[in-house]
C-alpha cells in the first residue's frame, strides 16, 4: 500500500524539459491549479521541497504539480524573473496568480491549499489565515526602517506611480527597502485592509503608513519628507563598510546555509575546507549592492571574495590559489 502511494506521488510531479513543453502544459492544465517548482539538482533544499510537493500531490489530486530545472530551461526562468532556487509559481487559467521564493514548506502548503480551495475554507480556518497574514504584514512593514510596497522593483518599476515614488525617494537620498506586490497576491490584497489604504505604492516608516504618492509629493513640497525618512549612506561608503565587515567577506548568491547558484556553492565548499572564519552577504537581497560592487571592485561576476577589504577574486582565482597552496595564508592575512 505504502509503495503504491509513493509511486503515485512520483508520477504526480511531472518534469518539464523545454519551453515548448511548459507552454503546452499551461494550456492543458488551464482549468486546474498548476504549481511549478523551479529547482536545481545541486541545491539540497530543492530536493526537500520536491518531497513536500510529492506529499501535497497525494493529498490534493486535483492540483497539478510540475518541476522545472531553472538553469536547464533558461528562457522560462528569465520570462518569470527566476533569480534563485527554489522558487514556486502558481498558475490558473494559464495566468500566474502567485509566487513563493525560498524553501518554506509551511507557506507552500498554505498557498497551495488556499488557491486549490478558491476561498472554500470553513470560517474558523479563514480567521486563522487572517491572523497569520496580519502577523506577516506586521513583519513586512517593519522589515526595514523605511519600506516601500510597490508594483515591480526600484530598478524596474511596473507602474508610473511606483516609478515616480522611487524617483522622489532617490532624489532625497532616502534609504529604503521594497516589496514587489506583484510577487505575492496575498500581501497585495491583505495590505489594503491592514493599512486601510486601497492603492499602491504605499510607504511605511518604522512600520507606520506614511501614505501613497500624493502624500509623499505633499511632504516633499512642504520639505517635511527629509525629516520623516531615514537617509542612505553614499553607496561607495556603504560598500567600503560591507567589504570590511569581517576579515574574510564573501559576496554570493545565497548565504552560508543555502547557496543559490552552483559557483557560490563551490566557493563555500572551498572556504569551509580551510577552517577559516568568514561572513557572507547575499547579493540577491540587495540590488544596489549587487550592481554597485561590480563597479567598485571592477569585477563583473559573483561570487566575490574579500580579505581585509581587498578583493581576492572569484571562484576561478580561489581555485587556483587553493591548488597553489596560497589560499590559506591569504585568508589568514599572512600574505
Can you put this structure into words, describing what you see?
This protein is α/β, with parallel strands linked by helices and 335 residues long. It has helices at 2-12, 19-28, 44-59, 74-79, 105-117, 123-141, 160-171, 185-195, 213-221, 225-228, 235-243, 262-274, 287-297, 315-323, 327-331; strands at 13-16, 34-39, 64-69, 87-92, 95-101, 146-150, 177-180, 202-205, 208-211, 248-252, 279-282, 304-307, 310-313. The strands form three sheets. It has a five-stranded mixed β-sheet, with helices on both faces. The longest helix has 19 residues, at 123-141. The relative contact order is 0.08. It is found in: Cytoplasm, Cytosol; Cytoplasm, Myofibril, Sarcomere, Z line. One of its GO terms (cellular component) is cytosol. InterPro entries: Glutaredoxin, GRX_PICOT-like, Monothiol_GRX-rel, Thioredoxin-like_sf, Thioredoxin_domain. Pfam families: Glutaredoxin, Thioredoxin.
Question: Which helices and strands, and how do they pair?
Answer:
Blueprint: H1 2-12, E1 13-16, H2 19-28, E2 34-39, H3 44-59, E3 64-69, H4 74-79, E4 87-92, E5 95-101, H5 105-117, H6 123-141, E6 146-150, H7 160-171, E7 177-180, H8 185-195, E8 202-205, E9 208-211, H9 213-221, H10 225-228, H11 235-243, E10 248-252, H12 262-274, E11 279-282, H13 287-297, E12 304-307, E13 310-313, H14 315-323, H15 327-331
Parallel strand pairs: 1-3, 2-3, 6-7, 10-11
Antiparallel strand pairs: 2-4, 4-5, 6-8, 8-9, 10-12, 12-13
Helix pairs in contact: 1-3, 6-8, 7-9, 12-14
The class by helix and strand makeup works out as alpha/beta
Overall shape: flat
> Which strand-content bin applies to the residues?
15-25%
CATH superfamily of the largest domain: Glutaredoxin
Number of helical regions = 15
Percent of residues in helices comes to 40-55%
Identify the CATH class of the largest domain.
Answer: Alpha Beta
Could you give the order of the helices and strands? Answer: HEHEHEHEEHHEHEHEEHHHEHEHEEHH
Task: Tell how many strands the DSSP assignment holds.
Answer: 13
Write down the domain tally.
Answer: 3
Q: Main sheet: which strands, in order across?
A: 1-3-2-4-5
End-to-end C-alpha gap:
63 Å
Radius of gyration: 23 Å
CATH topology of the largest domain: Glutaredoxin
List low-confidence stretches: 1-11, 119-126
Domain Thioredoxin: 1-117
GO biological process, one term: [2Fe-2S] cluster assembly
GO cellular component, one term: iron-sulfur cluster assembly complex
GO molecular function, one term: iron-sulfur cluster binding
Amino acid at each position: 500500500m505504502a509503495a503504491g502511494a509513493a509511486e503515485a506521488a512520483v508520477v504526480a510531479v511531472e518534469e518539464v524539459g523545454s519551453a515548448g513543453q511548459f507552454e503546452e502544459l499551461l494550456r492543458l492544465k488551464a482549468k486546474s491549479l498548476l504549481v511549478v517548482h523551479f529547482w536545481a539538482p545541486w541545491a539540497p533544499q530543492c530536493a526537500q521541497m520536491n518531497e513536500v510537493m510529492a506529499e501535497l500531490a497525494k493529498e490534493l489530486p486535483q492540483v497539478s504539480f510540475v518541476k522545472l530545472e531553472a538553469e536547464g530551461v533558461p528562457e522560462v526562468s528569465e520570462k518569470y524573473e527566476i533569480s534563485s532556487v527554489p522558487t514556486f509559481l502558481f498558475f490558473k487559467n494559464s495566468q500566474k496568480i502567485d509566487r513563493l521564493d525560498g524553501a518554506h514548506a509551511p507557506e507552500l502548503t498554505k498557498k497551495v491549499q488556499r488557491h486549490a480551495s478558491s476561498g472554500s475554507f470553513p470560517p474558523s480556518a479563514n480567521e486563522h489565515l487572517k491572523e497569520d497574514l496580519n502577523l506577516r504584514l506586521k513583519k513586512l512593514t517593519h522589515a526595514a526602517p523605511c519600506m516601500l510596497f510597490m508594483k515591480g522593483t526600484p530598478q524596474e518599476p511596473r507602474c508610473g506611480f511606483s516609478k515616480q515614488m522611487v524617483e522622489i525617494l532617490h532624489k532625497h537620498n532616502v534609504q529604503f527597502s521594497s516589496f514587489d506586490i506583484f510577487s505575492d497576491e496575498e500581501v497585495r490584497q491583505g495590505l489594503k485592509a491592514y493599512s486601510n489604504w486601497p492603492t499602491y505604492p504605499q510607504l511605511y516608516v518604522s512600520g507606520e503608513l506614511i501614505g501613497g504618492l500624493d502624500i509623499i509629493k505633499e511632504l516633499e513640497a512642504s520639505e517635511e519628507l527629509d525629516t520623516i525618512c531615514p537617509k542612505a549612506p553614499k553607496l561607495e561608503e556603504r560598500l567600503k563598510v560591507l567589504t570590511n565587515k569581517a576579515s574574510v567577506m564573501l559576496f554570493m548568491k545565497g548565504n552560508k546555509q543555502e547557496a543559490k547558484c552552483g559557483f557560490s556553492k563551490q566557493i563555500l565548499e572551498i572556504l569551509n575546507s580551510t577552517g577559516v572564519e568568514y561572513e557572507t552577504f547575499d547579493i540577491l537581497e540587495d540590488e544596489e549592492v549587487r550592481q554597485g560592487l561590480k563597479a567598485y571592485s571592477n569585477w563583473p561576476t559573483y561570487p566575490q571574495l574579500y580579505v581585509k577589504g581587498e578583493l581576492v577574486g572569484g571562484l576561478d582565482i580561489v581555485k587556483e590559489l587553493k591548488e597553489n597552496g596560497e589560499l590559506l595564508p591569504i585568508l589568514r592575512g599572512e600574505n
